[in-house]
Write a structure and sequence with these properties.
single chain, mainly alpha, globular
């Protein structure tokens, strides 16, 4: 009997691993998973706050970001579910919260589109081919705007402005590899490690 039990456990574990392989995690999901601090598939405002603090943001910015992001995205990621004052964001449905007036680097399913990413720098990185200046970033945002899409304008501006403030170099340049790392969330992990290392010194 014990042999059968071990066999069943092995099959179950194998089936779960196979299911995880078959369930592709999109770039957009990876982008937000850093903020799912307990890895339960749900991001609450407190986790958004903790995530921003982890990458080195101050109390004010982290507080404002957690309110703005969770209030704006929560219900969009919970179709058919009642309103919740806990403002949870469901990672699996994050594609439903993709805002308009964006660069198109994520497709409608939340997948990364390399050609659209390269297009951003081909069109707007005119001073340095692999970096964006502050003015070039402003031009990028303007080119992404859809008519009277004020919510999309605000979302796009907020995302890129925070990225620029946190990640520009000493010459005021936002580098291509930094922007690329934002799209799959790997930048957040790197920033958190660097911030933790600074605190230990």
């Amino acid at each position: 009997m014990s042999g059968d039990s071990n066999s069943n456990i092995s099959v179950t574990a194998s089936s779960k691993a196979q299911a995880m392989e078959n369930c592709e995690t999109t770039a957009l999901q990876k982008h937000v998973m850093f903020f799912d601090r307990n890895n339960d598939g749900i991001i609450y405002p407190s986790e958004t706050f903790q995530g921003f603090r982890a990458i080195g943001c101050g109390l004010l910015l982290s507080s404002v970001a957690s309110v703005f992001i969770n209030l704006g995205l929560s219900q969009k990621t919970r179709p058919g579910k009642p309103f919740s004052f806990k403002f949870p964001i469901e990672v699996k449905n994050i594609k439903m919260a993709k805002h308009t007036s964006d660069s198109g680097v994520y497709d409608k399913e939340g997948r990364f589109v390399p050609t659209r990413f390269e297009e951003v720098f081909a069109k707007h990185a005119l001073t340095h081919p692999h970096s964006l200046t502050s003015d070039e970033l402003k031009n990028l945002l303007k080119s992404n705007r859809e008519p009277k899409d004020y919510g999309g304008w605000l979302a796009g501006y907020t995302e890129w402005k925070i990225l620029y403030i946190l990640c520009k170099d000493k010459n005021g340049l936002l580098h291509k590899e930094t922007v690329r790392a934002v799209y799959d969330g790997s930048l957040f992990e790197r920033m958190a490690k660097e911030n933790a290392s600074k605190k230990q010194k």
